[in-house]
Amino acid sequence: MTPTPQLSLGLLLTAAAGFADVVSFIELGGHFTSFMSGNTTQLGDALALGHWPVVLLTASLVLLFFLGSVFASLLALLCGTRWGSSAVTALVLLAFAATLCLAAIGLPSSQFMLILAAGAGAQNAILPSTGSVRLGTTFVTGTLFAAGQDLARALRGLAPPWRWAQHALVWASLLLGGLLGGYGYAQLGINALLVPALVYLGFLIAFVVRRPGKVIG
Fold this sequence. Notes:
Layout: H1 4-27, H2 36-49, H3 52-104, H4 109-123, H5 141-155, H6 163-188, H7 194-209
Helix pairs in contact: 1-4, 1-6, 1-7, 2-3, 3-4, 3-7, 5-6
């Protein structure tokens, strides 16, 4: 089982990711900055139909997400246990700031949202793995499978009886974040991204001020 304090932090980060991805989905007209399975299937369809603008957009989103995950993972390794989470969170915040700045000067969403895709890839390296649940991720397909698998194992007495519920909570946090993101976009447009940005800022402050060697939670 994942300890409750760490799980709570992961749920908050996942909700922030869901918020941002819904804003991106609306802004991009049906494409994602976090859900690479969806972008990949759309890429395959666009290649088959010869819809080259969609090919360019979806391929760029997938590539930038991948590069963001690589760079953030390297950054976490280089900065070590004490500063890794802080550095990666700062990188995610920088991606949000750049996205909003480029949107403010009038660039099309098909360009400025690419930076947010890199930030989404980076977010997955903020929290280290703790227990059985992947913390703070921007996608939940594997989490849903893990919930089903753990429930099946629990029914046979092979896993803790409620571990599957922790996985389900991660899914629910993404759903809640998406719900709030849709509402936020309706009220604020692209500036709704300021809401998850404030969440990441709170995490960054907490990571920086924690005592050396102390893990949050």
